[in-house]
Write a structure and sequence with these properties.
single chain, mainly beta, Neuraminidase, four-stranded antiparallel β-sheet, 1 helix, 17 strands, globular
Length: about 220
């Protein structure tokens, strides 16, 4: 789980927390945010400026040996989405503040990234890309904060499905159930005014929606593809 400037493992059955790594060189105003498991079994994660004012967020890799390495990516304001294509050769991430979902080529041998491109922007939908999940066809399901929407992007960046929610701020998605065809969607109430909550009273709820294409089994830390 993400802490202020650290990552750790929390056991809900015992409420024990095991600190794994501290980002001592991160600015004091930064905190960790989103993350995901890479094809080599490492944890990739990012940081963000807590005040959401300066692009000081970075990208990191936490390996099984306990080492933390900075990824060679430009600093951003809010890091979100850490997803890889089913074959591991594409990496998807976003700078939420810029309303851009980014795609990179990922070298499976070296772990290096190249070929940065904007897969899609979300300006016309008036939303900010947040958490995401990949399905078995390699399409990216992405939450749009402030837009009440979850979109499905093809590998070419086309929106081929859109879910409109009775909640303003969807935050992340995950596939579940035995067939991995239930899309679970978390949402937030934080920062919404009373009139906004009256208009979207289910904000802060967990939604479950059946979809046609199954997701991928979750990758596990320390277990390469």
């Amino acid at each position: 789980m993400a802490g202020d400037r650290e990552i750790g493992v929390y056991d809900p059955s015992t409420e024990a927390y095991d600190r794994l790594a501290v980002l001592a060189e991160e600015p004091e105003t930064n905190r960790t945010n989103d993350g995901g498991i890479a094809p080599d079994g490492s944890l990739w994660f990012g940081t963000m400026d807590e005040s959401e004012k300066e692009p000081k967020g970075g990208y990191y890799k936490f390996s099984l040996d306990g080492s933390v390495d900075a990824l060679r990516l430009p600093s951003v304001l809010i890091t979100n989405t850490f997803q890889f294509s089913p074959d591991g050769r594409k990496f998807y991430t976003c700078d939420s503040a810029e309303q851009e979902i980014l795609s990179f080529d990922h070298d499976l041998e070296t772990g290096k990234l190249s070929g940065r491109k904007v897969l899609s922007d979300t300006f016309e939908l008036a939303g900010y890309p947040d958490g995401s999940a990949i399905d078995s066809e390699g399409c990216l399901w992405t939450c749009l904060w402030d837009a009440s929407r979850v979109i499905r992007l093809t590998p070419d960046g086309e929106i081929d499905r859109m879910i409109v929610l009775a909640a303003t701020r969807p935050t992340s998605v995950a596939f579940g159930d035995d067939d991995l065809k239930t899309l679970f969607i978390t949402t937030a109430r934080s920062g919404l005014s009373f009139p906004q909550l009256d208009a979207r009273p289910l904000s802060g709820s967990l939604f479950a929606i059946r979809v046609d294409v199954p997701g991928l089994p979750p990758r596990e830390f320390g277990k390469p593809l």
